[in-house]
Amino acid sequence: MKRLLRVLTVEDAPDDAQLIVIQLEQGGFDVHFQRVDSAQALTEALDTASWDVIICDYVMPGFSGLKALQILKERGSDVPFLMISGKVGEEAAAAAIRAGADDFVLKGNLARLVPAVQRSIAEAALRQQSRRHEQELKEKLEFIQVLIDTLPTPIFYNDPNGLYLGCNRAFEEQIGMKRGEHINKSIYDILPPDLAALYSRGEETAENGVGPRSFEGTITCADGERRDMIFYSATFKNSGSSSGGVVGALLDISERKQAELKLRYLSSHDILTGIYNRAYFDEELERLSKGRKFPVSIVMVDVDRLKEVNDHQGHAAGDDLLRHAAEVLKNAFRREDVVARVGGDEFVALLPNTDETTLREALERLQAHLATSNHEHAVLPLSLSIGAATAHDGEELMASWRLADQRMYRQKKGRKNSNAGSRQHQLVA
């Protein structure tokens, strides 16, 4: 069964057009054709029917093959276009090919016509298939772009040389650069050098086939805010299994980090006073018992009259008294000392590298801070019962803690009969 071939001939000589049809029929085609010989007729034929091939005479009265080819190209048509002529030379043939003709056939050598038509139709089909694939790829890429643009996580992808190929809207907003501004730029053009180097090492690991890589870092966003991030990266492959580059994503973990810091703080600090709590004190006591910072002195402190204040002035006043005590203790001791609230009205201070002489100086400093603070808080003055002891090695530490506690309670019971001169002697006796 012959293959249907719809042919539009642009030819001023009917006999020559008929010879073309005969040649095609002899080549195995079932030819349906129409002949036109002017620009208007050509345009009408293109508007009213679909054609498999156009065979056009190079020279015609008032018209030409190059003009016909121009009309076809201006319409964006990809119908195979063969130029045919009787006497033109190689320059004219070359000009026709440069203008977009698929082939040039001499009328004296029509044996080339059928192979030329077959090849031109096959090449047009390949071009059409290629355009269809390109369109499908474009639509897929547009879909992917729309998809990743809807994600709040910044996403980007680089070529094997580390140059940016694309990203999503969230990434643009994160770095403060529009999509076109970072294309073909490297990570060193966008991020600070130290962070860019860190990220590059992650990309190298991913490139070496280790698999997806993640690491944490901090970046400065477009609004100037520093944010904690997890960087994820993984390689993607081309059709030939070669590396196509690296795709990456940034996950903002700033809130998580802040929550972790808060939890860490709450696990070691007293909520009311802001100083260390009993759990942290126990850890430090254990650590100091195994360390080399001896002698270690311990100061036990009890807030006097707390129950009385709570009963008569309310718990808010009692809380103020506890915060007052914590402030006095924190200001009185050194930065390396550990001050903690270990009970309702009890506080303790661990003083590493502190012998008895240095301890007395610390207690004098505490009394001075207490007096100054009470002068500023005359409405609700603070009274503290204090006991202290010094341990010279790890084995003595727990015993010194108990001794300091006993001395503190001894002072608390005998405060009414104590005087300022004897108080200092009792603290460390």
From TrEMBL:
4-aspartylphosphate: residues carrying this PTM: 57
Origin: domain of life: Bacteria
Domain PAS: 140-194
Boundaries of every PAC domain copy: 213-265
InterPro entries: Biofilm_reg_signaling, GGDEF_dom, PAS, PAS-assoc_C, PAS_fold, Sig_transdc_resp-reg_receiver
Biased composition (Polar residues): 417-429
Ranges where the GGDEF domain occurs: 294-424
Keyword annotations: Nucleotidyltransferase, Phosphoprotein, Transferase
Start and end residues of each Response regulatory domain: 6-122
UniProt GO MF annotations: diguanylate cyclase activity
EC numbers for this chain: 2.7.7.65
Region of interest called Disordered, as start-end residue ranges on this chain: 410-429
Listed name of the protein: Diguanylate cyclase
Species assigned in the record: Geomonas oryzisoli
